[in-house]
Amino acid sequence: MSARLLPGGPVAASVLADVARRADALRARGVRPGLATVLVGDDEASAGYIRIKQKQAADLGFDSPHRHLPADAGQDDLLEVITGFNADESVHGVLVQYPIPGHLDYDAALQALDPDKDVDGMHPVNMGRLAVGLPGPLPCTPAGIEALLAHYEIPVAGREVVILGRGATLGRPLAMLLAQKRPTANAAVTVVHTGVGDWERYTRRAEILIAAAGVPGIVRPEHVRPGAVVIGAGVRYAGRRLLPDVDEACEQVASAITPRVGGVGPTTVAMLFRNAVAAAERATR
Ligand SMILES: Nc1nc2c(c(=O)[nH]1)N[C@@H](CN(C=O)c1ccc(C(=O)N[C@@H](CCC(=O)O)C(=O)O)cc1)CN2
User: Fold this and answer.
1) What is the pTM of this model?
2) What ipTM score was computed for the predicted complex, to two decimals?
3) Domains of the chain, with CATH numbers?
């Protein structure tokens, strides 16, 4: 068997088309959506992602003020930039590009953000909203995965979804999202992690297996139930080289699978803009 591929590009395009319509409607009533970005240090990959986001912002007609702090900036410098954007009414969304230099505290920076401007959906208030089912910005990669499954009409409701990985940015919020009572979710979700000695006992049961461990090549064909849908969401980088969690050979066992490059990744950026346009709509209602 060779699995059907599930590229993220068409999913992202459809989300961004909706964002473009909503941004046009905002501008028609005099509101230009504003997405601010913050980069600390000289990480080449992060600078590249910021450029992608700024280009996308320009294409969608967003303002995108940017602050680049030097690698030796202090926590106070970072907090000053964040509180400045919090107070700026022309800025509806703010993101601090991850990673930041090791001497800085990312969680503290996140907590300094106005939760209503948190376009990454990672502020504890927004995680809490997700946990209790209140509306709010959703973490981008989990939201991208839900959108990808819906786009390819892969039924999720009532099915056995196993997530390998319990990280705060991916596995944990994704479990909350896919267990919610909505037509594109409503699954029987299990979260397992690599600290569980026999984690493959769980992954082999999955009708939909989502690899979110960040361990290159950890999911091999023998860990996959034949005919399962496999979503590769966890990645590591060696420099700029992408090292996915899912071994290529899983294509021979799965019925459908995300490509190793161009799978979940592109949906993450689209969801960022969906959160940003929603923040602008909320702030100017
Ligand atoms: N504040 C944030 N920081 C970071 C995030 C984030 O969502 N918010 N995510 C990553 C970086 N990132 C966006 O910022 C990002 C990374 C990768 C991709 C992507 O589409 N990757 C492609 C592969 C491209 C390649 O070959 O390298 C893919 O997965 O197919 C999009 C966004 C960390 N920081």
Assistant:
1) 0.97
2) 0.96
3) 30-117 (3.40.50.10860), 139-266 (3.40.50.720)
